[in-house]
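Suppose a classmate hands you a notebook page containing two proteins, each written out with its sequence and a corresponding row of structure tokens. How would you begin to make sense of it? This section walks through that situation. The first entry is reproduced here exactly as it would appear on such a page.
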Amino acid sequence: MKRLLSIELQKIWKNKASKILTISYFLLLTFIALIASIKIKIGGFNLHIADQGIFNFPYIWHFNTYIAAILKFFLAVVIVSMMANEYSYGTLKQNLIDGMSKKEFIKSKFLTVLVFAGVSTIFIFLVSLVLGLSFSSYTELGIIFSQMDYLFAYFIKLTGFFSFCLFIGILIKRSAFALGFLFVWNIIENIIIGIINFKIFPDSDYDRNFTRFLPLESMSNLIVEPFTKLSVIKNIETTIGGTANLKDYDVHWYAILIVLCWTAIFISASYYLLKKRDL
């Protein structure tokens, strides 16, 4: 296992574009800290973002994992390129000639996916912990380490998404076309969701029972947007005559199970394609 992972990480690190994208991704994650310095002045109204509670424990786990998940496309490019380069440079065929089985090859790719997801999760944990200890109004241990299921959901979300990217990379072989397919698939899912929401079930909750099983939508559902949880948003809603937001922000076991199922499907399909394909 260690040998397989070492081979994959060396391939990525020796590729200049992949190295730059990976480093850029983690640098951008640290830039979440810059949000704390944002100050908005409108007339006599002053708004300091760090004072609005976004870095309070345990809210910070929700906020930072949601923001960090948006940046996952940087590593998506690395994952897709990693697979496309195997075909372009002939390293896939060479690895098989050298004695690596197709199962070991897929295993090495999935291990890389797990490492990317795991390191990203640990990194966002450390960034969030530092920001929370610096700006949070609540520093009791029980509060600090509550709602950490968002970190687990973040790890599962990245693992599922990167497994999807791996499958696309094997299916299409070309990184540009694979990334284009990812973009098109996102549009297709949004069209399906729109049809189900506004045409098939416009006045019921049945739409959620169907759309939650779409691959990208299921990953998106793991961490719901956190912005409407902020007290400032709720105060505005109350001021304009709205009602308190009753949205469900929890991480649910069935949402995790759906993404895990898709992850298993993508990895199994990747192995099946590689096994049947004439290299």
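The notebook's second entry, a different protein, reads as follows.
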Amino acid sequence: MTASQTLEAQIEPLKSQLISHPLYSTLTNKKSIQLFMETHIFAVWDFMSLVKALQQHLTCTTTPWIPVGSPSTRRLINEIVLGEESDVDQHQQPASHFELYTDALEALGGNTNALHQLVENIRAGASYQAASEQLDIPVAAKTFMDFTFEIIETGQPHLIAAVFTFGREDLIPDMFIEIVQKLAQENTTDFVALLYYLERHIEVDSEEHGPMALQMINELCGDDSQKWEACIEVSQQALYHRIALWDSIYQSL
């Protein structure tokens, strides 16, 4: 097996655990989906920081400009950033995937106050830690985000890319999409934004960004066995944190 195939084989049991998590069986109505999204939105937000951290490491984001890294890797991450940060909504208006998710949650009547305050605190100059500790964020979501920023702070592009590529893959089972589709048919106004997000997420992340991110991992690790071993470890840790997040939401429901 190739190094990337070995990595994927090592994390497959955790991915299977996520896809069959009992949480999904509880997401059967508007209220349960709203409560799920109110916690999950923090994971959607910190995902954007992984994307931007990779762009900062793999491209030149300062002036004067100089070429950084390989042109191939630069193109891969810039294309991913374009899609994640500047996609389009259901009205063909520019929006990040985070903003798409926020709009979908607010359409369901969900509470986004803490999330918006977190963003505003950071906009005002607070660090992630200072901004998040001031707010009433679900403990599991805070723990999840803390791990993300620990990986970002390593400054190691291959580790950040591994968490982005393998550890943060949103494994959306067909069952959940079918539930949302059914609810959307019953009440299009409330669920149309969420259904668009899910369908767009599958189209962009699975068909485009997934293969791009895998290529990027291969370029960053190359033939360095130590880097591949480290990627396996952080990917497993990220999936454990995702499972813990799902466990917490499931218990609350």
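A careful reader of the second entry would note: The mean pLDDT is 90.
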